[in-house]
# Entry
Amino acid sequence: MPIQENLWALLQETAKQYPLKALKTAAENLILRYRTAERTGEALVLDETDAAAYAASRMPATFAACNAVFRELKNRAPEMQFDALLDVGAGTGAATLAALEHFPFKTVTCLERARAMAKIGERLTANASENAPDIHWISADFTRLPENTPRADVVVAAYAMNELSDTARAPVLKRLFDLSNKVLVLVESGTPSQHCLLRAAAEELVRLGGFVFAPCPAVRDCPLPADDWCHFTVRVQRSRLHRLLKGGDAPFEDEKFSYLLVSKEPIEPVSGRVLRHPTVNPGRIDLKLCTKEGILLKTCTRSQKAAFKAARKLGAGDGIQLEN
# Structure
């Protein structure tokens, strides 16, 4: 059974261990804490009920966003071999499980400071994939990583860097980049503030010698205006439990996320990326693209058979190779 299907079943089993009313209250309190936290790195998950509520209400969307990011990594670097994964601020293991959907890592290390989160994460990562390697969980704060933290081909920090202040973030970013042998993966919420966070991170990582190869065709001098931001969307099917904990009757939700893929060696980025959903008109499709030369508006007409056919398959966030 695919990881995602196993994961959904395991989340249901985990939630059954706690009263529904307690989970709903914990989920509501977590939303409030995450919205009002002052980004000092303090722990926001306080006990096992909090951790179970987080897993049931947030893990599906986190997994889906990370799954999309690791799919992009595989698409952009199809020939690269990755043997070791380090997941810092691993929470309940969403990023690790998403990575295992795309890469046969031989060793995986998850660092998580909240014991309640790690306890659930250990169970989920041990049972969601039949072919997963042994996953080693370490109790550690990613803002103060132990000296013996293992290096890895891929280091991922998903929905973690936003918990830090601007001044605290830079040294952590350098430490994570130093620990990555090949690629550093950062995933955050798709908000204007997280776009700014990742833009600053991109500039710092380039200064440290890194190569940003996704999502940005233009590494320096982001061409977006000040009132716009780069983000992507993935649709998440909601279970009955998910709907009960988060409120609402819709069978799905759209998770907006931002991300960076940064390598130690040059990897060629796409020459263009679709910024918004294409505008489809009779006989023509209009695309708004981010390119190395800035924002480009491109029109594909029915007379351009190959280009028109390709454009019909494009969605917001997709990368394309532009003709010279």
User: Anything to note?
Assistant: Residues 48-76 form the longest helix (29 residues). The CA atoms of residues 141 and 267 lie 31 Å apart. The longest strand covers residues 252-263. The domain at 3-263 is CATH 3.40.50.150 (Rossmann fold).
